[in-house]
Structures are given as C-alpha cells and as structure tokens.
Amino acid sequence: MLHLEHLSDTRLPTLWGTFVLSLFREKATGKEHLLLWTGNWASEGFSPLVRIHSECLTGDVFGSLRCDCGQQLADAMQAIAREGRGAVLYLRQEGRGIGLSAKLKAYALQDTGLDTVDANLALGYSADERDYTIASDVLKYSGVTSVRLLTNNPDKVEALQKAGIRVAERIAVVPSIHPENTNYLRTKVQRLRHMISLDVLENSERQPSGEG
Questions:
Q1: What pTM was computed for the model?
Q2: What residues act catalytically?
C-alpha cells in the first residue's frame, strides 16, 4: 500500500531547463514532498537518472558552505536536464530529519567542536532520522522499478532495494570542498559510510590558500 497521495503538477522553468513539479502528501502525517521531473523518465524498461534529495534550507536556498547539499541539488538538476529525462525527489526532511530548529541548534554545537553526528546525538536524536519510504512510494506510483541513483549515501541505495526498487547503477556525486565543509564531509565518510574519497579531502586541505 502506498503511503501518499498525488496533489498537483505544474511546469517549472529553471536555469537548467524546464521540469514538471509534482506535489505529493504523506497520508499519515500530512507532510508534503516534491518530485521534479523531465522527459519520459518513467518509461517501461528504462532506469532513469534519479536524485533523492533531502531538504536543506541553508544549503539549497542560502548557499551555505557548511554542507554540500545545494551543490548536489544543482548538479543533479543539471545532469538530469542534460540527459533529457530523469527526476529529483525532494523530501521535506530538513537536517537529516530533525527539522530546521534542531538543525540550527546542532550547528551551534558544531561550532563548539562537535561533529554533525555527535551534535544530533547531544540533542537526543539519532545520527540520521530520515525515512526513505516516501521516495520508494513516489517511484512506485510513477511506475519506476529501476533507477540509476545519484548519491554517495549507501543508506539510500539499501532503502530503495529493500523496498523493491532496483538500483541499476550508483553514480557518485563529487562534492565541492571548502575549509568550512571538510570536517562535515570527513564525518560523512567515517561515521555515515558515505562513499567519498578521503584522499580528495586530504589533498584539498594541503592546498595553499587561494588554490584548488
């Protein structure tokens, strides 16, 4: 049984091309999520390029350098537009599912020296509170059974496969590295199993100021 209902669709012209923006709502919670898609992405026998992206107001809207979220979203939209078909599932799961208020409190704790995982734990949350059930439900509603997934996060791959969505290929998302996000990215690798090369981070940190 699907846990969502489809509310509306609209055309959305963007910097990278024109998409269709579809709105879904979780039946149990009333929380709304978005599907941004283009082309004949859900055709039978095709594994579309898909990005599952959790809402990050600070990164997606304000361009925060504390994370790599805004860059990942922009890169995914650009890659999908270039291919001509595919989708971004935009899940309203701010701060790895803890919400905006708690996320900002976690930022304050990070400024005292905690990493992103320990900051969440200190606030009484788990390291990652996200649930990808809605993502698999949107894909099933759309008739998609196999995807090429834009992600560095093995949790997303495992969640989709557990729900019966085949991940035909995992496509790495190359992060932009700044002094402000190197510890964040390292924590993703060391504590959240993200598939990012530590060598890339270490080489970036060794670059003289103004280079790289």
A1: 0.91
A2: 128, 130
